[in-house]
C-alpha cells in the first residue's frame, strides 16, 4: 500500500450512471487490486478496483451509487486526489491456460486489466459480459482485444437471453478456471455451481486496508477482510 | 527554544512512554499489520483490539456508515478470543514492537470481564488492561455496564480482585454524568480512565429507507466528537486524580495539545488512523514543531491547565 497524490487526466461519462476516470502518478498495481480515493467533503475514502494500470496511469470505472460517487462526476481534469494505492490481494495470474472471465455490470471493470495481463501471458482468454440489457455491457471493444467475448442479457437485447450462470454453462466446458466480478447473487450462483474459480467481492468498507474489521466476511477458513485477505477469494471458500 | 530541547516523554503507571500517542483500540488491529507501512516503534504504546473470552465474528455487514466529520461503526467486537490474543497475537506483535501495550477487554458478564482481564496477569508486554464497559450485561437484562455508576463500581471492584495489571476504565459518553462514572471507577480501585468511547448514532439509507448499519445503530467517532470529548475529559479531570487518557476525534498535533490541556496525560488516536494509515506517525513528527510554536517545553506542564 502507498499513500499518493494522483492527478486527474480525464473523467468521462460511459453511460448515464457509469463514468471512467484516469489518473496519473500511481505506483504499479496488479489485476484485482484496488485503490481508495479521498473525495473532498467526505469523511471516508471510496474504494474502486483497478480497471487498468499502465506506466503510472490508473483507470477506474465507477457507477454513481450515492452522494460520494455523484460528487466524483464533477471532478475536473488536473484535480489532485489523495489516494491509497496497491490495496488488497489480486487475481492469480498463472495456473490456468484457458481462463473464463465473467463480469456482471460494473463488475466488468477489474476484468479489463486482468484480461490484458492474461492475454500478454499468452493465455487463451474467453470473456462473458452480463447485464440487464445491452447498455450495461460497457467496454466491450476494449476487452474484446484480449479474447473472445460472449454476451448475456436478462432482456435478450444482446447475446444469450438469461443470467450469468445459465450463459456460463457451455463456456465452463471449454475453460479450466474462471474469474468473476459482479453482483453478489451472481457470484453466489456461480460459486455454488462451480468451485474452480475465484471471485472479486465488494463490501461497504471503513478503512480499506485491514485496520477496522468493517468488511469482514465469513469463509471456510474463518473470518477474512474483503480489503486485506481479499477482495479476491476462492469460489469455494466464501460463505454466502 | 530549539526543538531538540522539547520533550515528548510521559509516564503511565510507572512506565516511561516516549510520547503520549497511542492508537486507539479497534483502529490498529493487533499492531503488526501497520508495521508494513512504518516503523511502529515510534508509537508511545498501542491499545489492542477489544478481546473477549471466546472468539467473536461480530455483526453482519454493513458495519460502517459514513457521517459528516466522522463515521459510525458497529463491528461487534470481532476478535480471535483471549487465548489466541494472549499467546499468538502478543508474540507476533513482539517481533515488530518492543514497548509495552494496553490490552483492551470487553465482556458480557462480570465473570467474563474478570476472566479476560486476569488472563493478561503474566503477559510481560502488557502495561495495563483497558476495560471497555460499553458492552451490554447480557445476563443482567442487557443494560450497558458503563451506564450505571453502581454497576460500574461493582465491575471495577470485581476485576481488581484478580487482575494484577494496572486497570484503565474506558468510559462511555452516552451517560447523564461522566464525572459520576469516573468517580465510581476511581473509588473502586481503577488506576486510570480513558475517555471517551463512541457516541451512539444512526444513519438511514434514503434508497432502501432502512438504517445503513445492519444492526441499526452504532458508535459515532471522528472529528465531529472532538469538542464533546474535550469537555468530558475536562469534567473527568476535575472529578478524579488518577491519570486520564483522552480520545475522541484527535487528528492533529494541535488536537493532542488541546486534549492534554483539558486533562489528558496521554491520548489515543482512533478514526484518524482509518482515513490516513500514517496519522499517528505524522502527529508524532509534528508534535515538537507545534509545541515550539506554542511555547511548550514539556507536555506535563500543560496537563489539565485549562481547568476553570
Cα(first) to Cα(last) distance of chain B is 29 Å
Quote the CATH topology of the largest domain in chain A. Answer: Rossmann fold
Total domains of chain A, how many? Answer: 2
Beta-strand segment tally of chain B? 17
- Helix-strand pattern of chain B: EEEEEHEHEEEHEHEEEEEHEHEHH
Question: Architecture of the largest domain in chain A in CATH?
Answer: 3-Layer(aba) Sandwich
Helix/strand/pairing category of chain A: alpha/beta
Mean pLDDT of chain A: 96
Number of continuous helical runs of chain B: 8
Regions with little confidence, pLDDT below 50 for 5+ residues of chain B: none
Strand portion of chain B, in percent? 15-25%
Helix/strand layout:
The complex is a heterodimer of chains A (240) and B (308).
Chain A lengths: L1 E12 L4 E7 L9 E4 L8 E4 L2 E3 L2 E7 L3 H6 L7 E8 L11 E6 L4 H12 L5 E6 L8 H5 L3 E6 L6 E2 L2 H11 L2 E5 L2 H10 L3 E4 L15 E4 L2 E4 L6 E3 L6
Parallel strand pairs in A: 8-9, 8-12, 9-10, 10-11, 12-13
Antiparallel strand pairs in A: 1-2, 1-7, 2-6, 3-4, 3-7, 5-6, 13-16, 14-15
Chain B lengths: L9 E3 L2 E3 L3 E3 L40 E4 L2 E4 L8 H13 L6 E5 L4 H9 L7 E7 L3 E2 L5 E2 L4 H14 L4 E4 L7 H10 L4 E4 L3 E3 L2 E2 L4 E2 L6 E4 L4 H14 L4 E4 L5 H10 L3 E4 L1 H5 L3 H16 L14
Parallel strand pairs in B: 3-17, 6-7, 7-10, 10-11, 11-16, 16-17
Antiparallel strand pairs in B: 1-2, 4-5, 5-15, 8-9, 12-15, 13-14
Helix pairs in contact in B: 2-3, 3-4, 4-5, 5-6, 6-8
Amino acid at each position: 500500500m502507498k499513500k499518493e497524490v494522483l492527478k486527474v487526466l480525464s473523467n468521462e461519462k460511459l453511460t448515464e450512471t457509469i463514468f471512467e476516470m484516469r489518473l496519473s502518478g500511481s505506483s504499479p498495481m496488479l489485476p484485482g487490486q484496488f485503490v481508495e480515493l479521498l473525495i473532498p467533503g467526505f469523511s471516508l475514502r471510496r474504494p474502486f478496483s483497478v480497471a487498468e494500470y499502465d506506466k503510472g496511469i490508473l483507470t477506474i470505472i465507477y457507477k454513481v451509487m450515492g452522494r460520494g460517487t455523484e460528487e466524483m462526476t464533477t471532478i475536473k481534469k488536473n484535480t489532485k486526489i489523495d489516494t491509497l494505492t496497491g490495496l488488497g490481494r489480486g487475481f492469480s495470474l498463472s495456473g490456468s491456460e484457458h481462463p473464463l472471465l465473467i463480469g456482471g455490470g460494473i463488475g466488468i471493470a477489474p476484468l479489463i486489466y486482468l484480461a490484458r495481463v492474461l492475454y500478454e501471458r499468452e493465455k487463451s482468454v474467453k470473456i462473458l459480459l452480463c447485464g440487464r440489457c445491452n447498455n450495461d455491457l460497457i467496454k466491450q471493444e476494449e476487452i474484446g482485444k484480449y479474447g473472445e467475448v460472449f454476451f448475456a442479457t436478462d432482456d435478450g437485447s444482446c447475446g444469450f437471453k438469461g443470467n450469468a450462470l445459465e450463459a456460463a454453462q457451455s463456456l465452463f466446458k471449454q475453460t479450466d478456471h474462471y474469474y468473476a466480478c459482479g453482483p453478489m447473487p451472481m457470484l453466489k450462483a456461480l460459486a455454488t455451481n462451480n468451485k474452480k474459480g475465484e471471485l472479486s467481492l465488494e463490501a461497504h468498507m471503513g478503512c480499506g486496508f485491514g485496520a477496522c474489521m468493517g468488511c469482514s466476511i465469513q469463509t471456510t477458513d474463518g473470518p477474512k477482510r474483503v480489503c486485506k485477505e481479499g477482495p479476491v477469494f476462492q469460489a469455494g471458500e466464501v460463505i454466502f | 527554544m530549539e526543538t531538540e530541547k522539547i520533550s515528548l516523554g510521559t509516564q503511565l503507571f510507572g512506565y516511561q512512554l516516549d510520547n503520549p500517542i497511542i492508537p486507539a483500540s479497534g483502529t490498529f488491529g493487533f499492531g503488526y499489520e501497520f508495521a508494513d507501512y512504518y516503523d511502529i516503534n515510534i508509537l508511545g504504546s498501542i491499545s489492542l483490539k477489544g478481546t473477549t473470552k471466546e472468539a467473536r465474528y461480530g455483526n453482519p455487514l454493513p458495519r460502517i456508515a459514513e457521517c459528516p466529520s466522522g463515521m459510525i461503526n458497529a463491528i461487534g467486537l470481532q476478535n480471535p478470543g483471549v487465548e489466541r490474543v494472549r499467546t499468538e497475537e502478543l508474540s507476533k506483535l513482539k517481533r515488530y514492537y518492543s514497548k509495552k501495550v494496553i490490552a483492551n477487554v470487553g465482556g458480557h458478564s462480570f465473570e467474563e470481564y474478570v476472566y479476560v482481564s486476569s488472563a493478561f496477569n503474566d503477559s510481560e508486554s502488557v502495561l495495563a488492561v483497558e476495560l471497555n464497559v460499553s458492552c451490554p450485561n447480557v445476563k443482567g437484562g442487557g443494560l450497558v455496564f458503563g451506564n450505571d455508576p453502581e454497576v460500574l463500581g461493582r465491575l471495577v471492584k470485581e476485576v481488581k480482585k484478580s487482575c494484577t495489571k494496572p486497570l484503565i476504565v474506558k468510559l462511555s459518553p452516552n451517560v447523564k454524568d461522566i464525572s459520576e462514572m469516573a468517580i465510581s471507577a476511581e473509588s473502586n480501585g481503577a488506576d486510570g480512565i480513558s475517555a471517551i468511547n463512541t457516541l451512539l448514532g444512526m444513519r438511514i439509507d434514503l434508497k432502501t429507507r432502512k438504517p445503513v448499519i445492519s444492526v441499526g445503530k452504532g458508535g459515532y467517532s471522528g472529528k465531529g466528537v472532538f469538542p464533546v470529548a474535550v469537555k468530558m475529559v475536562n469534567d473527568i479531570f476535575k472529578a478524579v486524580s488518577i491519570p486520564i487518557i483522552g480520545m475522541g476525534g484527535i487528528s492533529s498535533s494541535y488536537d493532542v495539545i488541546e486534549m492534554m490541556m483539558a486533562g489528558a496525560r496521554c491520548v489515543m488516536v482512533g478514526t484518524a488512523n482509518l482515513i490516513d494509515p500514517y496519522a499517528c506517525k505524522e502527529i508524532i513528527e509534528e508534535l515538537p514543531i507545534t509545541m515550539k510554536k506554542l511555547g511548550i517545553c514539556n507536555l506535563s506542564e500543560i496537563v489539565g491547565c485549562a481547568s476553570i
